[in-house]
Write a structure and sequence with these properties.
five-stranded antiparallel β-sheet; 6 helices; single chain; alpha+beta; 22% strand
Length: 185
Amino acid sequence: MAAVAAAEGTEQSQTGPWTEGSGARQRTYRYRLVRHVPLALESAVRVTYVEVWEHGAKGELLYHNSWVTDLDVDAANVAVVVQIGRPRWKMENEQFHVHKNHGYELTHNYGHGQQSLAMVFYLLNLLAYVAHVVLALGARLYQRCRTQESRRELWNALRTLVNAFLVESWRHLLEVYLEEPDASP
């Protein structure tokens, strides 16, 4: 399976430029490729390291990043690999930012256990995130609750309600939270 992942620099390389656009919208890209780099020390897995710099029409640096990939990258297809790697890095970076800084405590939970416990915590984090996304996109009652408080405050309030009252269902819990008529605990 072909993959492109963010990476750190290396030594021996092949470099080259390419240009896109014209006038004020012209972008000049410089790249560096290193083929057959071990993925880790003493690793049999070999990858290609790709590094790119994007400069504006006036020569100012607009973007810089690097990736490793198992694709066969050369001067003819480096622009395509950059087009693949750049949005993938952005998606991964934003996803990890959400898990780390928005109530999922990824950095705290991921460090526990020596074998599979860390992975279990990580997968539970992913499951919680997916549940929140599904609720945010599809559950109107949940959407109404979210307009009143942040996600963290809402879940703290729901946790308090669950500890204090016996509720019949998820719907009933949200109705109690919203203080709807006929929703007494």
